[in-house]
Design goal:
Length: 607
């Protein structure tokens, strides 16, 4: 991740737990306006005087001149760049110069709405993006004054931070340090989502994404080993969780010593590790398994007890055209087969095993039949305005009521539908049904999930628009939800599909934001209208300060890039309050409504 926070609100954070702009008029501070002379210059200067009454505003035509003048004057507090119509390079270089020369100054950049695209470039070029604030023209006077005052209080807070910290209690000090870290290095914080705190190894998300990257780069015959400790629960139950943690940590270190040089070790579950290596011979695979089993089975001292556990391993070798999801699933099947056979053993995935995975096969076979028999149903979950809780739209979620398997969760059958290709037909059905239902509601938009395979299918943009036309649904009542994978798997095709959809007025939402690896500034290139912050961040928001800070930073950055923000999985009123304070405009979750039938959705609207 290289997403950078746009603003920091360190002092505010320490006081309240959440960064909130302080709106009171600040005491005097030196203000610069960098702008060639002219009418607009005096207008912007007037705005600055209104925001900072009593503060001297110095107007300079270039950054260099401002720096030269400043050598003799008071240190600058806020420096405002109003270089509209200048080449982006000129603007970026002026910002760089000033940022270097005035290491404390807050930097405000006025940008024409049409030039938003340069924000990402400026953020990337700027030496300290956390001091930057973008104001998008045309400006609402009141909003602009508020924002400028918030910027000034941030500057003053920064100056006071050293002294203030001394007088604050330990807790607050710890929080503000944490906040600084999070604000200054959001990339690291989000990266942590891919690592396991206990062993410092990559976690499941980190492992999956590394595996996908290796495959995308054409690595052949990758071999995946899934290692699960036998009867680990016994250690937890008899010696306690701290001892269990200690054992897992020690085994993690020991496994690291026998993983081949080209391999990657991860902790993918409580007592489960995974290894991926490059192509190995059959003998090589067996040797690696034996070594992994041997180190797991070593006797170790844990919290004063001598503990010995064993492990089982499931192995799968990548075949041609196999995706990382298949590879992991098949390694998992092999692991479960090994476990069934006993302890301290490994098992390779093979054809016989594949045939045995009958439930999956049954789902695979049942999907097409179910589709013909009309066993699928759409349900709709409200997306609401955070403040008023008025319904703005509904996310369309598919359900499968199978007479054979009962109700099957989408997480279980969507991946199978993707693998087998049924998703294309199912997806078409979903789109048409959702559009028809949306047409009946007559107000709110419908937000439809597109799986990666569906999205990368050629001409999906055109097909969506054709269905909308058939259902007589205006494209602006339509939003599609995509994951990062769908976009970066095939950047060119994604660009084309997105271009067609956006040109017609369909909104694009990025689903599950925060679970992938790409930065927001990178994803912004794909003209995304809205990001949906993943439920895992929302879950922690009232318990863990970092999650609130991450959401605040992401929200600010998203807004500066012109995207709106939906937080998903909101279950309590407290979460709602924290998310409002963090700047989220739109919310979704059981707190506002569970997924419900189209008719019930219409009734919700009437109420
Ligand atoms: P998603 O797109 O992230 O959808 C949100 C999931 O979170 C839904 O689960 C929803 O019911 C659940 N959810 C919403 N609010 C809350 C909450 O407050 N608490 C909790 N615990 N859960 C909440 P669902 O319907 O089981 O769908 C799971 C996933 O399956 C979806 O995740 C999506 O990736 C996929 N999916 C569902 N319907 C479709 C579809 O029509 N097409 C495609 N391609 N994928 C779908
Ligand atoms: Ca979704
Ligand atoms: Ca989601």
């Amino acid at each position: 991740m290289n997403a950078q926070p746009l603003q920091s609100g360190i002092a505010d954070v320490a006081d309240t737990g959440i960064a909130m702009p302080q709106a009171a008029a600040p005491a005097a501070l030196a203000v610069w306006l960098i702008r060639p002379a002219g009418d607009q210059a005096s207008r912007t200067a007037a705005l600055l005087r209104m925001a900072f009454p009593g503060s001297p505003v110095t107007v300079c035509p270039t950054g260099a001149e401002a720096i030269a003048r400043a050598a003799t004057g008071a240190p600058v507090g806020v420096c405002c760049f109003d270089l509209a119509n200048s080449a982006p390079g000129v603007l970026a270089s002026a910002i760089k110069q000033v940022a270097r020369a005035c290491s404390d100054a807050e930097l405000v950049v006025l940008i024409e709405a049409a030039d938003r695209a340069v924000i990402a470039d400026i953020l990337e070029a700027a030496p300290s993006p956390e001091r930057m604030t973008f104001l998008i023209q045309p400006l609402e006077m009141q909003d602009a004054v508020q924002s400028l005052r918030a910027v000034a209080s941030r500057y003053r807070a920064k100056l006071n931070a050293g002294a203030a910290l001394e007088s604050r209690d330990r807790d607050v000090r710890r929080l503000s340090v944490e906040a600084m870290e999070v604000q200054a290095r959001l990339d690291v914080a989000l990266h942590a989502a891919h690592h396991d705190g206990l062993t410092r190894l990559p976690n499941r998300a980190g492992f999956t994404s590394e595996l996908a990257a290796r495959m995308a780069n054409g690595f052949q015959n990758q071999t995946v080993f899934l290692i699960n400790l036998d009867r680990f629960k016994l250690v937890n139950d008899t010696l306690g969780h701290d001892a269990g943690d200690d054992l897992v940590r020690k085994i993690g270190v020991a496994l690291g010593t026998v993983v081949p040089a080209s391999g990657l070790l991860a902790r993918v579950g409580g007592d489960e590790f995974a290894v991926v290596t490059e192509s190995l011979t059959e003998q090589g695979i067996e040797d690696v398994c034996q070594q992994l089993l041997r180190v797991c089975a070593q006797s170790r001292r844990v919290y004063g007890h001598e503990v010995q556990v064993s492990a089982c391993i499931g192995v799968c070798v990548q075949r041609q055209d196999q995706e990382h999801g298949d590879l992991l699933r098949q390694a998992d099947l092999a692991l479960r087969a090994a476990k069934r056979e006993g302890r301290n053993r490994f098992r390779l995935h093979d054809e016989a095993l594949a045939r045995k995975s009958s439930k999956r096969l049954a789902i695979e076979g049942g999907l097409e039949r179910g589709l013909r028999a009309g066993e699928f149903e759409m349900v709709y979950q409200p997306i609401v305005d955070a403040q008023s809780t008025n319904i703005l739209g509904f996310e369309a979620l598919v359900r499968w009521n199978s007479p054979e398997f009962g109700s099957v969760a989408p997480d279980d059958f969507i991946p199978v539908a993707e693998e087998t290709g049924v998703i294309l037909e199912l997806g078409d059905w979903i789109m048409r049904q959702a559009m028809k239902d949306c047409r009946k509601w007559g107000g709110p938009y419908v937000s439809i999930n597109l799986s990666a395979r569906q999205f990368l299918y050629q001409k999906v943009g055109e097909r969506i628009l054709r269905y909308a036309q058939e259902c007589d649904l205006p494209p602006d009542k339509l939003q599609v939800e995509l994951t990062e994978t769908a976009i970066i798997d095939d950047v060119e095709r994604a660009h084309e599909n997105l271009r067609v959809l956006r040109a017609a007025g369909v909104r694009i939402a990025l689903d599950d934001f925060g679970t992938g690896y790409s930065s927001l500034t990178y994803l912004h290139r794909f003209d995304i209208d809205c990001i949906k912050i993943d439920k895992s961040f929302v879950d922690d928001v009232t318990r863990d300060h970092q999650s609130a800070m991450i959401i605040t930073s992401v929200t600010r950055l998203a807004k500066a890039l012109g995207m709106s923000v939906v937080a998903e999985g909101v279950e309590t009123e407290i979460q709602r309050q924290v998310l409002i304070a963090a700047g989220c405009d739109h919310l979704q979750g059981y707190h506002f409504g569970r997924p419900t039938s189209s008719g019930a959705a219409a009734a919700l609207l009437r109420d």
